[in-house]
């Protein structure tokens, strides 16, 4: 491996410092400027949309006044209740209504330009239509169909903005403002509809004033998701994904991929018309000023970096030359000859370094032997301490399993089993056999790896004994995947936790709704076994106390349980399981407890995924 010189290190450090400085300044400037520009563009677009929305509402409100005038006209109301078969009466009302509409429209030049037609349709099937002073003859069937449609969706006495036209050729190029009309008696029943069709092409001139750059565009979506004014001129589009996003976003700004490019959309919903006015610009166009700043920053930074590296190279050479002289003089010292270096009368830092080196050589020759002796003594003490600690761990581990005389109990159980067989008592036989299997499993004090299946079998034998003792049947829900049944874990850790649950989780007895669930998983190099119940749980202060004891990483002494209730003794059982796992696999593993008072408890045993015990019995 090539040795790195001091000059190279200085040069590298200068390179890192300069590069990081330029990178942080450039990145910070680019990010901040991008955010500021995005905010300004967003504010600009919001102002334009607010202005367009205000102007649109103003236009529509002017038409609402015209609609109010038409719907409240006495001739229009009388027309709604005329005899549809009386041609003369129809002619009179039709002439009056058209003249009234013509006078109303021509009084306002703006309305005259943007108006497509005014028409009234009665439920009797007759209609009067005014289109810029021209009389239109419509198919009565068509008018009746449109009337039925208008009566369904027009507001009851209120203005309704409809995306439709009674003439197919105008469909998609106009917006209809409709209102139901009552008869001259002003009763509750609606007699017909008065409607005004507004040309979108004229109204769009107001929207086209919104300046959004070369690739920006403006469009309007109604409250059902259909396009009133589409993003691109042409046939009006139906509801699509973009219009659905507009409705869902409300007045929020969002970025969406449209026609293959990322675009920013700013939406404002008109309180008057329930239209969503939307402005859109490509993100790349918004970020173009920021990209210019980034390019400029990179060019300036690159030039600055080149100049700075040249200065760093010159500076490094100026301070490395005298150090190289010192290096040549120290070569013999590197071989272990403890050779002094002549002080050449230097008064700078290099001279002080040479003087200190000479003092070091003098003292180092005297101290080296003491260091070797101290190191040997330290290794000896560490070895003795490790052996003592290992013996203590073995003693602690075996003391957990040898609390009773297992061989005496095992022989006694065999005798009881013989009596049970003679007396043909299957219950005693089953219970004794289960107890015998438990004792045989418990008396093994070696630390060889056992599987999850072994521990589950031990729990099964325990449940057999428990059910015969209590006279109640209770099944444990084992949800461990079959692929994990041969995973390795510590002997006699699962059954004590199950026993602890039966002792403390169900103080009033086990009910039909109670459950105990055992599950396991492998994740992130760890193998975890979960034991969960829906019992009474732990109070917060008790849970805090138990977690504190688990953090102490020590076995609970038997005398700690003297004079304490069952709850404290249960905590000792949990701590013993926790410490046994740590004895086998290390301090990083063990038992953790989560509990909610009145809801249940979750115990988690954490072990390495590829379990390899650290000690052997």
From TrEMBL:
SUPFAM superfamilies attached to this UniProt entry: ATPase domain of HSP90 chaperone/DNA topoisomerase II/histidine kinase, HAMP domain-like
Keyword Nucleotide-binding in annotation: yes
Chief localization: membrane
Domain annotation Histidine kinase: ranges: 421-611
Enzyme Commission designation: 2.7.13.3
Catalytic activity: ATP + protein L-histidine = ADP + protein N-phospho-L-histidine
Membrane-protein topology: Multi-pass membrane protein
Keywords: ATP-binding, Cell membrane, Coiled coil, Kinase, Membrane, Nucleotide-binding, Phosphoprotein, Transferase, Transmembrane, Transmembrane helix, Two-component regulatory system
Subcellular compartments: Cell membrane
Region forming the signal peptide: none
Catalytic class of the enzyme: transferase
Database matches in Pfam families: dCache_1, HAMP, HATPase_c, His_kinase
Residue span, HAMP domain: 317-369
Protein name: histidine kinase
Membrane-traversing stretches: 12-31, 293-313
Coiled-coil features, chain-numbered ranges: 373-403
PROSITE patterns: HAMP, HIS_KIN
GO molecular function, one term: kinase activity
Keyword Mitochondrion: no
């Amino acid at each position: 491996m090539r040795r790195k010189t001091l000059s190279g290190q200085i040069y590298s450090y200068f390179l890192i410092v300069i590069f990081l400085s330029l990178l942080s300044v450039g990145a910070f400037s680019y990010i901040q400027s991008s955010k500021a520009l995005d905010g300004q563009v967003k504010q600009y677009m919001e102002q334009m949309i607010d202005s367009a929305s205000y102007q649109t509402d103003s236009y529509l409100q002017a038409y609402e006044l015209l609609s109010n005038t038409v719907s409240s006209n006495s001739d229009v109301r009388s027309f709604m209740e005329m005899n549809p078969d009386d041609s003369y009466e129809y002619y009179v009302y039709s002439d009056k209504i058209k003249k009234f509409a013509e006078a109303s429209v021509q009084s306002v030049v703006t309305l005259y330009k943007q108006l497509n037609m005014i028409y009234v349709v009665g439920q009797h099937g007759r209609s009067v239509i005014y289109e810029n002073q021209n009389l239109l003859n419509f198919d009565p069937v068509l008018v009746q169909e449109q009337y039925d449609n208008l009566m369904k969706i027009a507001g009851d006495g209120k203005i309704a903005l409809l995306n439709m036209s009674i003439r197919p050729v105008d469909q998609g190029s106009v917006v209809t403002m409709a209102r139901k009309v009552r008869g001259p008696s002003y009763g509750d029943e609606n007699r017909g509809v008065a409607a005004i069709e507004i040309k979108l092409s004229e109204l769009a001139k107001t929207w086209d004033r919104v300046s959004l750059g070369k690739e920006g565009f403006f469009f309007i979506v109604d409250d059902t998701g259909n396009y009133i004014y589409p993003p691109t001129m042409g046939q009006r589009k139906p509801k699509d994904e973009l219009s659905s996003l507009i409705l869902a976003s409300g007045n929020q700004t969002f970025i969406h991929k449209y026609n293959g490019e990322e675009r920013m959309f700013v939406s404002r919903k008109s309180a008057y018309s329930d239209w969503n006015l939307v402005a859109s610009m490509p993100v790349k166009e918004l970020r173009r000023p920021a990209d210019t700043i980034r390019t400029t920053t990179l060019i300036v930074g690159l030039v600055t970096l080149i100049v700075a590296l040249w200065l760093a190279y010159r500076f490094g050479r100026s301070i490395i030359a005298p150090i190289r002289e010192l290096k040549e003089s120290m070569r013999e010292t590197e071989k272990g000859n403890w050779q002094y270096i002549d002080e050449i009368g230097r008064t700078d830092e290099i001279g002080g370094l040479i003087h200190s080196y000479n003092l070091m050589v003098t003292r180092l020759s005297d101290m080296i032997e003491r260091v070797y002796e101290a190191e040997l003594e330290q290794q000896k003490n560490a070895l003795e301490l490790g052996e003592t600690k290992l013996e203590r761990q073995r003693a602690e581990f075996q003391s957990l399993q040898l609390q009773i005389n297992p061989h005496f109990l095992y022989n006694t159980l065999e005798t009881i089993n013989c009596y049970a067989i003679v007396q043909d008592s299957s219950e005693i036989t089953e219970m004794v056999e289960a107890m015998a299997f438990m004792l045989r499993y418990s008396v093994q004090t070696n630390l060889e790896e056992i599987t999850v299946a072994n521990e589950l079998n031990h729990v099964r034998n325990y449940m057999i004994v428990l059910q015969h003792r209590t006279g109640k049947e209770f099944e444990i829900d084992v949800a461990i995947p079959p692929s994990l049944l041969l995973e390795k874990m510590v002997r006699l850790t699962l059954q004590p936790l199950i026993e602890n649950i039966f002792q403390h989780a169900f103080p009033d007895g086990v009910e039909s709704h109670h459950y105990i669930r055992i599950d396991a998983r492998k994740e992130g190099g760890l193998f975890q076994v979960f034991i969960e119940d829906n019992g009474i749980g732990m109070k917060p202060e008790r849970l805090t106390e138990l977690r504190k004891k688990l953090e102490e990483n020590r076995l609970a002494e038997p005398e700690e349980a003297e004079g304490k209730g069952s709850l404290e003794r249960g905590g000792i059982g949990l701590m013993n399981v926790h410490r046994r796992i740590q004895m086998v696999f290390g301090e990083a593993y063990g038992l953790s407890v989560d509990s909610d008072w009145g809801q249940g408890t979750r115990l988690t045993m954490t072990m390495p995924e590829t379990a390899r015990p650290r000690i052997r019995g």
